[in-house]
User: Which sequence fits this backbone?
């Protein structure tokens, strides 16, 4: 009986160690995805600023790329924390417009980033267009990165 209880306790310890390792690798994967999103959001904001310069998207050129680096971080955090809540609350409008209201949701996230980040000024409709640009860039680059990851396996 003592042997079986020790084997059971060893078995439980091994299971916990395996679960801990799986959780740790899952956290590393989620963190790397967050870093990728951060870089893609910063790059998307930079492209959107270049395309929409003078049309409601103004930025302080003296700050250089650090502005978009910081704005990409803020956009990533806003997308992780606030966007799911806004999507759930606006679900009736999204369903009624067959998904087109998601452009407004994305634009409002970019508009919020423009209000939070000093040196970046974005008007609402320019933010909607910037949200479209950022979504397109994120989609294309994520697809390319997924394809290259599948090819290496």
Assistant:
């Amino acid at each position: 009986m003592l042997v079986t209880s020790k084997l059971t306790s060893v078995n439980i310890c091994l299971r916990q160690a395996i679960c801990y390792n799986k959780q740790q690798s899952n956290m590393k994967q989620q963190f790397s995805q967050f870093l990728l999103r951060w870089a893609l959001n910063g790059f998307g904001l930079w492209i959107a600023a270049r395309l929409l310069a003078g049309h409601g998207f103004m930025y302080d050129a003296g700050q250089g790329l650090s502005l978009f680096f910081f704005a990409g971080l803020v956009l990533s955090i806003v997308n992780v924390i606030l966007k799911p809540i806004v999507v759930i609350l606006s679900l009736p409008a999204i369903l009624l417009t067959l998904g087109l209201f998601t452009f407004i949701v994305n634009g409002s996230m970019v508009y919020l980033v423009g209000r939070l980040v000093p040196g970046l000024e974005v008007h609402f409709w320019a933010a909607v267009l910037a949200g479209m640009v950022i979504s397109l860039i994120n989609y294309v680059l994520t697809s390319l990165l997924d394809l290259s990851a599948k090819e290496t396996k």
About this structure: The two ends are 47 Å apart (CA to CA). The longest strand covers residues 57-59. The chain has a mean pLDDT of 85. The beta strands are 57-59, 120-122.
